[in-house]
Amino acid sequence: MRTTLLSTACILLLAALAGAEDASRTLQDARKGHTTQLTRTATDAEPLTKPPEAIFSLVQYPTSIGKMSAYLGKPPAKEGKHPAIIWITGGFPPGGIDDAAWRRQSSANDQSAQAYRRAGLVMMYPALRGSFGNPGKQETFYGEVDDVLAAADYLAKVPYVDPSRIYLGGHSTGGTLALLVAAAAKRFKAVFAFGPAESPALYGAASLTYDPEDEKENRLRAPIHHLGAIGSPTFVIEGVGGNLASLRALEKANRNPKVAFLAVKDTDHFDVLGPSNELIASRIAKLETGAAVRLSGEELAKACAAAASARLEASDLRTLASIRSDGVRLDTERTVEHYLIGDFRSLLLKATDDAKAAGFTIRETKSFEGRDGSPYWVMFLTRKVKLGDLDAVFAASAAAQRVARKHDLTYDGWYLE
Length: 417
Known about the structure:
With 417 residues, this protein is an alpha/beta fold. Helix content is 32%, strand content 22%.
């Protein structure tokens, strides 16, 4: 489900060429009378994996071109009608969910949005046209809009779902599609679009089933031209280290007060997802019927920072357990070695002063060769720490992590020198 991040230069160029949004027409109005022209046929006959019966039902929802498959969450334990969310995963084709929907995911890259199910919402993951044995052909951001709306119609009729509290969310290509669906119909309580692109052309012709150089075909699929049609409260969310240029291009073009743009610091295209969805899901679960969701970038950043800190401390504890199993006493002070990794030696050298200011000694900076033959560089930082002092161990790792983030490097943990 991973999607290649877009180059900043490419995004800004297309944003400049895209022009302002057309707020006078809805997406559906703009598409009236148009039949999309596909340049290639893409279909997938492999059916959805059978889900655990206690968690999901495998259902068929009706569309204008036939019945399509989806995972539908089972009724929550509490009786009554519950809020629900349709989640569109990323990658190609959008909505290509698999067993990640129920398997445990890391908070560093949880594209499943399981947080909503755990918070008591009814989740629906719809598979879309031309995928998972569904009828039709993949149209990459065209007919799929109608499929998601059909899934929402189906979900609204589920006996244990409150039709007035149906949300929509998606990540990456799923976020792009979520924006288009939001522009097509005012029927969602709120929309959460993580890491969308302002134009599908940015994904590259090889990923698309239409000609991105066809101005009309591309315009009818580009969210940047249809933001004014969005009638539901919509949050466009991305990590500052992710596809930020697209968020800024969409924000610059937007004139719709219903659409908010939240750039989350110290996160990227993937690690922004888990903690953000945890916060949003918890907030929705506590809302009174009719109340609106409120979010800020600062709140999301705080949730993501707490999750990142927890992951780092868990890694430190695993390293300590490994050291102890090797017979090392933890009541001693030892020199530990932390590792910063970068593609270029110059990036690591720029981090030298900050590393020293954080209490580290630079042992060496050395080049290595990756599996594909490409070079990378590692800076070895040393620092004395009493292994049994968890606060000191955690503080050293956090300091190395901060240096890495400041200089666009990767922190790769530590071990004894």
